[in-house]
Design brief:
By secondary structure, the chain is an alpha+beta fold. It has two domains: 172 residues, FAD/NAD(P)-binding domain (3-Layer(bba) Sandwich), CATH 3.50.50; 186 residues, D-Amino Acid Oxidase, Chain A, domain 2. 26% of the residues lie in helices and 28% in strands. The strands form four sheets. Strands 5, 6, 7, 14, 15, 16, 17, 18 and 19 form a nine-stranded mixed beta sheet that branches. The protein has a six-stranded mixed beta sheet with strand order 9-2-1-13-21-20, sandwiched between helices. Helix 1 packs parallel to helix 5 and helix 1 crosses helix 8. The mean pLDDT is 95.
């Protein structure tokens, strides 16, 4: 490119960070604007799970396939940031046990490695598991720390010229002749308003992407769906522990450093910035996860929080569990607005694939012939990120 195209990315969560890395590798000028700190939205409040896809194998095979493919890629490109401790899918009752064969067949079809684990072996490795469990299947889950996850992508993007502007909130767009040519941002440090010109703007604002798109007169079919998570001040399990059934409430415990994270519930919210946590959801997390690891009830919460998932689908669906965890990119030329695209849905563990998809779209729209390289390029350490004013 004789003059590198300039792309502005809205959002410095996992999707925005991975997209900055992808586009910087392809030779674009990249600026990331984030209203808060890095990973201060949904990414920083997730389950920290490097998904194997097993959780979704039966009822959401598209998402499951995305998860396992990205799982293997992230192991290669982010070797210092993952705890590759695997996961156990555990059958608590007869219904779970009957589900096992359906689960194993679905995993085999998708390509998710599984191993049936003898109960004695499972209990020896995870002594806090209920002695009444009926079956255990091992899957290749892992754990990451979300803030460091984002920093690794952004540090590598910075090394390739990207500029990261935290605490800069998008308050409007600059438009000429039906095309967006820049973003208007307000510094949340000193209140100053400025304009950043762009050849293309990417909306990677997660559950806020609908609000961002609305400022440009566009629509995104995103359904913010919250889930409560609870941390307890003890590492009760070595591996990630899931219940062996279709995804539901309180069916996962994720070890994170010296804590365990219990989750999660699901309900629709109107505003991702105003999530009221139902007290009964917290109690429900304890009651349900205790069916897998009974000792969890001995511990008072270390922390309780909720994050809104940016699920794609119809707002008419009351149950967020019915919505896929896959992702999609939207070219707002269909809304009559050029120079503006959105990437949303997905999971932190599929952020790299989401970045590849939207970056391919940007290249097509700008006529740039540059292939994705993020499947092979090993990321810098999170420690390489440089903080700027």
């Amino acid at each position: 490119m004789p003059r590198p195209f300039h792309v502005v990315i809205i959002g410095a969560g996992s999707t925005g960070a991975a997209t900055a890395h992808d586009l910087a590798l392809r030779g674009f000028r990249v600026t990331v604007v984030e209203r808060g700190e890095i990973a201060s939205g949904t990414t920083g409040r997730n389950h920290c799970l490097l998904h194997s896809g097993a959780r979704y194998a039966v009822n959401d095979p598209i998402s499951a396939r995305e998860c396992i493919e990205e799982n293997f890629i992230l192991r290669r490109i982010m070797p210092d940031s993952m705890e590759l401790n695997d996961g156990y899918m555990v059958a608590v009752d007869d219904a779970d046990y009957a589900f096992k064969e359906t689960f194993l067949e679905a995993c085999e079809e998708i390509g998710i490695p599984t191993r049936e684990v003898p109960l004695a072996e499972a209990l020896a490795h995870e002594p806090n598991l209920s002695p009444n469990i009926k079956a255990v299947v091992q899957v290749p889950d892992g754990v990451f720390e979300p803030f460091r996850f984002c920093l690794s992508f952004l540090a590598t993007a910075q090394a390739n010229g990207a500029v990261i502007k935290t605490h800069h909130e998008v308050i409007g767009f600059v438009q000429h002749g039906g095309a967006i040519t820049g973003v208007q941002v307000r510094s949340r440090r000193d209140g100053r308003v400025s304009v950043i010109g762009a050849d293309m703007v990417i909306n990677a604002a997660g559950p806020w992407c609908g609000k961002v798109a609305h400022m440009a007169g566009c629509d995104v079919p995103v359904v913010p769906t919250a889930g409560v998570m609870v941390s307890v001040p003890a590492r009760l399990n070595r591996k990630v522990i899931h219940r062996l059934h279709l995804p539901g409430d309180g069916d996962i415990l994720v070890p994170q450093r010296m804590t365990s994270l219990l989750g999660t519930s699901s309900w629709r919210v109107e505003d991702p910035d105003a999530i009221n946590i139902p007290r009964e959801h917290v109690q429900r997390m304890y009651e349900l996860t205790a069916q897998m690891i009974p000792v969890v009830k001995r511990y008072a919460p270390r922390g309780v929080w909720a994050a809104a998932r940016p699920l794609i689908g119809s707002a008419k669906l009351a149950d967020g569990r019915a919505l896929s965890r896959t992702f999609e990119s939207f070219d707002h030329a269909k809304d009559g607005v050029e120079g503006f695209v959105t990437i949303t849905g997905g999971k932190t563990a599929t952020a790299r694939a989401m970045a590849e998809k939207v970056s391919d779209l940007v290249c097509r729209k700008l006529g740039v012939d540059a292939e994705c390289r993020t499947r092979e390029v090993v990321l810098l350490s999170h420690r390489a990120y440089r903080y700027t004013a």
